[in-house]
Amino acid sequence: MNGWMRKSSLRVESRSFGLAPYPSIADLRSPPRPTLRKSRRMSSGNCNTGVANKPRKCVPGGQSFSTALCGTAAVPLLTVCRMKSTSFHLLAFLLLTGCVLLTQTGCLGLLSNFMHAVGADRIPPEYDGFEKSKVAIVTMTDQSQYSDDVAARLLTRKVSDILSMEVKEMALVHDEAIQQWRDTHGWETIDYLEMGKDIKAEKLLSIEMTDMRLRDGATLYRGRAAIVLTVYDIAAEKVVFRKEIDEFTYPTQAGQYTSETTETKFRKLFLSMLAKKIGRTFHSYDFADTVALDASLASQ
């Protein structure tokens, strides 16, 4: 009895002083199992799990191990998983931000300017066979077979200027060669294939302009004309392109009063707009340039 009280008092004193109590009989019968800690030692070519002489292959990311030891480098798999997740979310965020920015007015303007700079917004030509070719341009009007029509000569020059600037590597047959052929053969009946061979042209553009009028009433200038465009391949001896413009009208909505300009000035303006219309058949262009053609009257 005294011994049991002495042992109990010792346990109370040990607990009061923060000391570990004596082990009980149950503790002595079942000793604690040893715990194995995960080894962080590196082995050559294998990843150890802490158990001696039992190599284990490297397991690709996302396991519960704190580290994976492969070769001579220890890479924390949890860190790798976090890096992959962060990269994915960053990419998704950037894509979402880009989509949102593209819907904003300022960004649409920036995108439009970029497309304009690289030429992605330009309308392609209907016929692009003039590139890297020697081309002759001939204009015929209702008066050409009787005399050297001023309108025909002026339209030829304006179309030639436009195509020489807009079409890559296109060479023009000089107008003097065409005039010499006319003086020799006349304009009553024209064989364009024969003309092209004689003046050493590879392609020939024939512009037939009929029913040209500059007036709409007694006090208003408003031009109209019917156009037929024909392209001849001289070597192949055939027509490769043909287009009809039933009625070209300029200005389209209104006219210009005769008191504001002269017939000579308006003829030049009308033929300049017609030359641009013809030129766009053979070179790419920006559609915005065709929206406000009538505004050209304000600068005349």
The oligomeric state of the chains shown is: single chain
Give start-end ranges of low-pLDDT stretches. Answer: 1-20, 38-75, 77-81, 114-119
The secondary-structure class comes to alpha+beta
Question: Span from first to last CA?
Answer: 131 Å
The figure for the number of domains is 3
The CATH homology group name of the largest domain: ABC-type transport auxiliary lipoprotein component
Write the element-wise H/E pattern from the N-terminal end onward. HHEEEEHHEEHEHHEEEEHE
CATH topology of the largest domain: Rossmann fold
Radius of gyration over C-alpha positions, nearest whole angstrom: 45 Å
Classify the helix fraction into a percent range. 25-40%
CATH class of the largest domain: Alpha Beta
CATH architecture of the largest domain: 3-Layer(aba) Sandwich
Mean pLDDT: 75
Strand content: 15-25%
Instruction: Characterize the largest beta sheet: strand count, sense, and whether it forms a barrel.
Output: 6 strands, mixed
Shape: flat
Tell me how many strands there are: 12
Textual characterization of the structure:
- The chain is α+β, with helices and mostly antiparallel strands.
- It folds into three domains: 2-75, no CATH class; 81-118; 126-299, ABC-type transport auxiliary lipoprotein component (Rossmann fold).
- Helix content is 37%, strand content 22%.
- Strands 6, 7, 8, 9, 10 and 11 form a six-stranded mixed β-sheet that branches. A two-stranded antiparallel sheet has the order 1-2. Strands 3-4 form a two-stranded antiparallel ribbon.
- Helix 5 (150-166) packs across helix 8.
- The longest helix has 26 residues, at 77-102.
- The chain is flat, with a radius of gyration of 45 Å.
- The protein starts with a helix and ends in a 14-residue tail after the last strand.
- Residues 28-48 are annotated as: Disordered.
